Structure formats: structure tokens, C-alpha cells
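Final report, section 2: Outcomes. Of the targets proposed, UrcA family protein is the one most frequently requested by collaborating groups, and we therefore present its record in full.
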Amino acid sequence: MIRRETLHLILATALAGTALHTARAADMGYVAMLAGSAPQEQFVAHGLLWRCASARCTAPAANSRPAIVCEAVAKAVGPLATFASGGDPFDGEALARCNAAARQRQKLAVK
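The predicted structure is given below as C-alpha cells.
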């Protein structure tokens, strides 16, 4: 039988590991790989300062839905090849929706 102290230690270690993983994911913020080169080294999209090196752009984490942030970035700089929030990459379907929504918003803005 497992002693109570050992069980508490195991539980505390597991909870601490989960909290650390969550904190690291939140620190990762957003990463967008552009389909082409970034038009500039920095830009603002959805109130976030994005910094780019070649086609890779990053921004700090925010309290926004990742899909909305993705659309704002795609609208600002063009189609995205990949997008990740907190270390979690968008799948192909979510990325396609992001790029399509950005194209639709650009068309509405032109009219």
C-alpha cells in the first residue's frame, strides 16, 4: 500500500508539471510562418506587436481567440503557411479558414 505522504508527493509533482507546461505554452505566444517573406520587420495586428525574421513572425500571448489573431495577421501580411498559438499548431482546416477569412475581409474592405 502506498503511504499517504508518497501519494501527496506524486500528486503535487504531477500538478506542478501540468502548471509548468501551461505556463510555458502561454509564454510561447503566437508564431506565424508567412507564405512569402515578411514585408517588414515589425507590424501591429490585433493590437499585438509582431516581430519578423524572414518569413517567421512572432508575438506575445494575449487573451484573444487564436483564430481571430490568425485572421488579423493574414489580413495584415498575406496568406500564412502555418500558425501556432501557445505551441499548438493549427491543422490544415483551421489554417485554410484563417486564410479564407482574411481574404474575405480584405475584399469587403476594398468595396
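The chain has one domain: 28-110.
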